[in-house]
Amino acid sequence: MPQQKMRIHGQYVKDLSFENPNSPFLSSSKAPDINVMVNINSAKLEGTKNKEEVNEEKSFHEITLHIEVKATVKDEGIKDGVAFICETKYCGIFSIENLKELSEEEVRQALFIGGPTFLFPFAREIIARVTSSGGFPPLMLDPIDFETMYEQQGQQQKSNGSNSNFN
Q1: What is the CATH number of the domain that holds 29?
Q2: What is the C-alpha separation between 121 and 165, in angstroms, rounded?
Q3: What's the helix, strand, coil split of the chain in %, to 5?
Q4: pLDDT, tens digit (0-9, with 9 covering 90-100), for 90-142
Q5: Of residues 85, 63, 62, 88, the one with CA closest to residue 150
Q6: Structural domain of 72
Q7: How far is residue 116's CA from residue 123's CA, in Å, rounded to a whole number?
Q8: Which residues, 6 or more positions from 42, have their beta carbon under 8 angstroms from its beta carbon?
Q9: Can you give the pTM of this predicted structure?
Q10: Separation CA 26–CA 75 (nearest Å)
Q11: Which residues of 130-141 are buried (b: 16+ CB within 10 A; e: fewer)?
């Protein structure tokens, strides 16, 4: 199996929002229920394919780690029970070298496992800071096993007879 080489060329917050709809009336001392949704998208950046001196192809991709957190509490004084909603799209620009020697599956694994694994700690810190700035204790998301997530998505697609991209 050829060795893949993946490099990051930049990372950034593409979108960030925090809603605190019941402030300053949030008086519940109950711990909120936390619901976390994670999606991963990859977009090939056009016009970035080139031939290196050693005749290797390089492909550039923007990988987006989209995390949405909704905290709810069961309290009669809180409208809709929403304590806060935090959403971020954290992106990285990655290149994959030795592209001609890699299978489509190896490229997908690099994009949907390697990329998000690199980006997650940075997105996690942003969410912790934003929730703290919103008047809540910093929300420290549990680590995510992107390899298991990728495998589960693949099994789900096989059972549905779908070959669509991993999201």
Answers
A1: 3.10.420.10
A2: 24
A3: 30, 35, 35
A4: 999 999 888 788 888 999 999 999 999 999 999 999 999 999 999 889 999 99
A5: 63
A6: 5-160
A7: 10
A8: 61, 62, 63, 64, 111, 112, 115, 165
A9: 0.83
A10: 9
A11: bbeebebeebeb
